[in-house]
Amino acid sequence: MAGFNKVVTSYDDALAGIKDGMTIMVGGFGLCGIPEGLIAQLQHLEAKELTCISNNAGVDGFGLGLLLEKRQIKTMIASYVGENRLFEKLFINKEMEVILTPQGTLAEKIRAGGAGIPAFYTATGYGTQVAQGKETREFNGRSYVLEPSLTADFSLVKAYKADTMGNLVFRKTAMNFNPMMATAGHITVAEVEEIVEPGELDPEHIHTPGIYVHRVIKGQFEKRIERATTID
Question: Is CB count within 10 Å lower at the N or C end of the chain?
């Protein structure tokens, strides 16, 4: 990388600096909008004792399921984990800590982290196990739970297009958690389908400004369908 050019051409360069014990955010919802190549490279690096923040843990043998196969994740902070049998096994056998978080709360914890907000109050989860051990407070007659925000050593995101300066454009539902995670990583790496020159992206259509993005790599995506439903 030179100057404002944030493009890297190898996955080794894209994930340089990842070490055991780090916290990694990974964009995606199910298998939609996941940085497939970055996840595969993370498995190849064999970094262990990771705390992983993602909506879910992929499926067996794909997405974050690859990291589960090598027991690389020590703690998983997620909202939905129902599509992965190995995940269930590791959790039941106490081989991995799981911190289940309501989906809207998870999104706001990440957004707040990226905005520099250390914590916020939400009514979601009050009176349930979600609130155990957390500060609660009443506002206008309603009880709220104090939730700490989330940041990460690395955020791995997937975008549709980027320019060489790291400005990102996401496409439809593949946007999901990616924009907020891009703001919450100390180092944000974007795997994209297309890289263009500065000025080729309409400024009105840029979802994530390049100031949040440190590295950009062009990937090849399988875009596997998680579950196909057909009607006869």
Answer: C
Which of 47, 50, 48, 98 has its CA nearest to residue 77?
Answer: 98
> What's the pLDDT tens digit per position in 194-205?
999 999 999 999
pLDDT tens-digit readout, 160-187: 999 999 999 999 999 999 999 999 999 9
First to last CA, the chain: 52
Give the integer Cα–Cα distance in Å for 148 and 110. Answer: 10
Q: And the tokens for 225? A: 């369908």
Q: Which of 140, 143, 169, 165 is nearest to 157 (CA)?
A: 169
**So what's the architecture of 11-117+149-218 in CATH?**
3-Layer(aba) Sandwich (3.40)
